[in-house]
Write a structure and sequence with these properties.
The protein is mostly helical and 212 residues long. The protein has nine helices and four strands; from the N terminus they run H-E-H-E-H-H-H-H-H-H-H-E-E. The chain has a domain at 3-143.
Length: 212
């Protein structure tokens, strides 16, 4: 199977299911067996996912991508052994980063729900014009791309996380902030925005926000 078929949803699902690390192997860049150059799609998905993992507090090095050909058996073995050692040193997912289990899993689930939207954003705003590893790494490490991620993805991710919490029960701004590790002022901003859109309402009796 082409590495380009490994969707962002597949990677996030693996982490949601408790995997401590995810490895993606593909054919060498510019040596794809298909005219679609799917291994660049795999590289793009991995770089997007690393940003998401870092944003929610997980070590982005828990995801690794390597490109090789069919004669690189020894290299593959070395890479797998090296990656396994790294993942073991990181510790269990979330616990190794000192994160609350419930909190970071909420964030992973929210990211999975946003995958269709992220695909659309990737096609329209996060496409790398040049097919080269250097161009991809330069693009995804640029300040402009960081700004786009915050503007187009991370704010939506925070709202999605908040909505997931409120579907369980009404919560105050402070309770949401503590669970998700977000700044209270950020939570208030997102709640006010969601309230104007008719997504949430403020329950005066409980002094809590709830799903509208």
């Amino acid at each position: 199977m082409c590495s380009g078929r490994v969707d962002l949803e597949h990677i996030l699902r693996a982490f949601s299911n408790g995997q401590d690390g995810v490895f993606i192997g593909g054919c060498r860049l510019n040596e794809c067996n298909y005219t679609t150059q799917g291994n660049y799609d795999a590289l793009g998905n991995a770089l997007i996912c690393k940003k998401i993992l870092s944003h929610i507090g997980l070590n982005p090095d828990r995801l690794r991508t390597e490109f090789m050909n069919s004669s690189d058996g020894i290299f593959l073995s070395e890479v797998i052994n090296d990656f396994s050692k790294d993942v073991n040193s990181f510790g269990p997912l979330g616990k190794g980063e000192g994160l609350d289990d419930r909190g970071f899993r909420f964030k992973l689930d929210a990211a999975r729900k946003l995958v269709p939207y992220i695909r659309l954003v990737e096609r329209e705003r996060l496409r790398v014009p040049v097919k080269s590893e250097e161009a991809y790494i330069r693009f995804f490490s640029s300040e402009e791309t960081d700004r786009l991620f915050h503007e187009l993805i991370f704010d939506k991710l925070a709202i999605c996380q908040i909505m997931s919490l409120l579907r369980e029960k009404p919560l105050s701004t402070g309770e949401i902030s503590e669970t998700l590790g977000l700044n209270p002022s950020q939570v208030s901003k997102f709640l006010n925005s969601s309230s104007r859109q008719g997504l949430v309402r403020y329950d005066v009796n409980q002094k809590r926000f709830a799903v509208a």
